[in-house]
Amino acid sequence: MFRSVARSAAGKHLLRRGYATESVPDRKVAVLGAAGGIGQPLALLMKLNPLVSRLALYDIANTPGVAADVSHVNTRSEVAGYVGEDQLKQALEGCDVVIIPAGVPRKPGMTRDDLFNINAGIVKGLCAAIAKYCPNALVNMISNPVNSTVPIAAEVFKKAGTYDEKKLFGVTTLDVVRAKTFYAGKAKANVADVNVPVVGGHAGITILPLFSQATPKANLPEEDIKALTKRTQDGGTEVVEAKAGKGSATLSMAYAGAIFADACLKGLNGVPDVVECSFVQSTVTELPFFASKVRLGKNGVEEVMGLGPLSDYEQAVTSVAIGVFILAASSIGFAVVNRI
Ligand code: NAI
């Protein structure tokens, strides 16, 4: 169903150019975990997105208040809050994109793997419901550890007979956002012009920013590249420590999640050349899931792009990361199988 969207004067500066008169399809987006630290600002950012016509905010508590609050923002989408498992069906039915920031965040001293036991169970339950109520939706997995929650989701969908590798995404956009910000600072470039692909996974040394492919080119010395790589890999920990027990990245993650969901919606709507990095099923390396640049289209993943030329340093860190993945995969693999 298509609908014409008019830009209100009040919300004009928040919306992007180009939607004044043209038709955009109706799109329903659900945020699962919408009352959380990421969920609330993400709900607001999705409310500001003119590509969304219906916004479903689901959590196990507190969504009526969040939904009432966000619903007063004078933008296109209709907002509804859903609370508790009884209302999950209604939240999911008809969804084009489901964003999952449900789960517990890291505390100081915890790794993303420490989250595995709690978040794996949450993700499993939510994905079983997605398989039942909106099996064709694109799933944007934010819940950590993404390196494991994405394979878990895949297994749940396979068991339900609904798995489509083109529709399952681990959201690694925050790594890209951080790499761009840190690179722009070092290269003294306008951050709005900066592009940096980030490949690999979404935990510590599996996060591989490819600064040799960064644009605009800056020819930074190797010590700077190493420092930027480490800061990008430790970006999450930097925030966890600064928040001193009060959670992990929420605002920057909401921003990153909104960028990725927007890219998915643009792809669904047929906008050409929408490319973002994401942790997806992949044949780029020997690993079954790997983050790399992905072209998004009307069915989700249109093309999983290769890594491109790597510097010697990037080649070395990629090999180390792949080794770490293979080691982790043997233990996580058992855990995943036991969970499904
Ligand atoms: P939070 O604790 O503030 O919010 C989580 C929300 O999930 C809560 O509102 C909670 O009620 C809800 N929830 C718990 N079980 C649920 C269920 N079964 N169904 C629906 N909702 C449920 O945590 P925060 O800071 O929002 O983080 C959420 C997740 O995102 C964590 O797993 C965190 O590690 C991850 N994260 C991922 C990042 C990434 O780059 N992919 C970056 C930062 C955090």
Automatic annotation (TrEMBL):
<dbReference type="GO" id="GO:0006099">
    <property type="term" value="P:tricarboxylic acid cycle"/>
</dbReference>
<keyword id="KW-0520">NAD</keyword>
<dbReference type="InterPro" id="IPR036291">
    <property type="entry name" value="NAD(P)-bd_dom_sf"/>
</dbReference>
<dbReference type="Pfam" id="PF00056">
    <property type="entry name" value="Ldh_1_N"/>
</dbReference>
<feature type="binding site">
    <location>
        <position position="144"/>
    </location>
    <ligand>
        <name>substrate</name>
    </ligand>
</feature>
<feature type="binding site">
    <location>
        <position position="119"/>
    </location>
    <ligand>
        <name>NAD(+)</name>
    </ligand>
</feature>
<comment type="similarity">
    <text>Belongs to the LDH/MDH superfamily. MDH type 1 family.</text>
</comment>
<feature type="binding site">
    <location>
        <position position="112"/>
    </location>
    <ligand>
        <name>substrate</name>
    </ligand>
</feature>
<keyword id="KW-0560">Oxidoreductase</keyword>
<keyword id="KW-0472">Membrane</keyword>
<dbReference type="InterPro" id="IPR001252">
    <property type="entry name" value="Malate_DH_AS"/>
</dbReference>
<feature type="binding site">
    <location>
        <begin position="142"/>
        <end position="144"/>
    </location>
    <ligand>
        <name>NAD(+)</name>
    </ligand>
</feature>
<feature type="binding site">
    <location>
        <position position="178"/>
    </location>
    <ligand>
        <name>substrate</name>
    </ligand>
</feature>
<dbReference type="GO" id="GO:0030060">
    <property type="term" value="F:L-malate dehydrogenase (NAD+) activity"/>
</dbReference>
<keyword id="KW-0816">Tricarboxylic acid cycle</keyword>
<feature type="domain" description="Lactate/malate dehydrogenase N-terminal">
    <location>
        <begin position="28"/>
        <end position="170"/>
    </location>
</feature>
<feature type="binding site">
    <location>
        <position position="106"/>
    </location>
    <ligand>
        <name>substrate</name>
    </ligand>
</feature>
<dbReference type="InterPro" id="IPR022383">
    <property type="entry name" value="Lactate/malate_DH_C"/>
</dbReference>
<dbReference type="InterPro" id="IPR001236">
    <property type="entry name" value="Lactate/malate_DH_N"/>
</dbReference>
<keyword id="KW-0496">Mitochondrion</keyword>
<feature type="binding site">
    <location>
        <position position="59"/>
    </location>
    <ligand>
        <name>NAD(+)</name>
    </ligand>
</feature>
<keyword id="KW-1133">Transmembrane helix</keyword>
<comment type="subunit">
    <text>Homodimer.</text>
</comment>
<dbReference type="GO" id="GO:0005759">
    <property type="term" value="C:mitochondrial matrix"/>
</dbReference>
<feature type="transmembrane region" description="Helical">
    <location>
        <begin position="316"/>
        <end position="337"/>
    </location>
</feature>
<feature type="binding site">
    <location>
        <position position="253"/>
    </location>
    <ligand>
        <name>NAD(+)</name>
    </ligand>
</feature>
<feature type="binding site">
    <location>
        <begin position="33"/>
        <end position="39"/>
    </location>
    <ligand>
        <name>NAD(+)</name>
    </ligand>
</feature>
<dbReference type="InterPro" id="IPR001557">
    <property type="entry name" value="L-lactate/malate_DH"/>
</dbReference>
<protein>
    <recommendedName>
        <fullName>Malate dehydrogenase</fullName>
        <ecNumber>1.1.1.37</ecNumber>
    </recommendedName>
</protein>
<keyword id="KW-0812">Transmembrane</keyword>
<feature type="domain" description="Lactate/malate dehydrogenase C-terminal">
    <location>
        <begin position="172"/>
        <end position="315"/>
    </location>
</feature>
<dbReference type="InterPro" id="IPR015955">
    <property type="entry name" value="Lactate_DH/Glyco_Ohase_4_C"/>
</dbReference>
<dbReference type="Pfam" id="PF02866">
    <property type="entry name" value="Ldh_1_C"/>
</dbReference>
<dbReference type="InterPro" id="IPR010097">
    <property type="entry name" value="Malate_DH_type1"/>
</dbReference>
<keyword id="KW-0809">Transit peptide</keyword>
<feature type="active site" description="Proton acceptor">
    <location>
        <position position="202"/>
    </location>
</feature>
<dbReference type="GO" id="GO:0006108">
    <property type="term" value="P:malate metabolic process"/>
</dbReference>
